[in-house]
Design goal:
alpha+beta; two-stranded antiparallel sheet; 3 helices; Integrase
């Protein structure tokens, strides 16, 4: 299970597998709105929408 640092951590989380702190990667609101429209005719559309709506990471959705 990953642990979070304090709120002023710059968006870091602990990766147990790699045994180091990694930066969180987040989209801006504009990016989050544009991605589903861009992928609308792609086979990835549903995957992207579910990921954005649930907040699940891609590696979590693959399992």
């Amino acid at each position: 299970m990953s642990k979070r640092r304090s709120r002023g951590d710059g968006g870091l989380h602990w990766d147990e597998r790699r045994q180091r702190w990694l930066a969180d990667k987040a989209l801006t609101l504009a990016q989050a709105e544009a991605v589903p429209m861009t992928a609308e005719n792609s086979r990835m559309h549903a995957y992207i929408v579910v990921s954005l709506l649930t907040g699940a990471r891609t590696e979590e959705l693959r399992h």
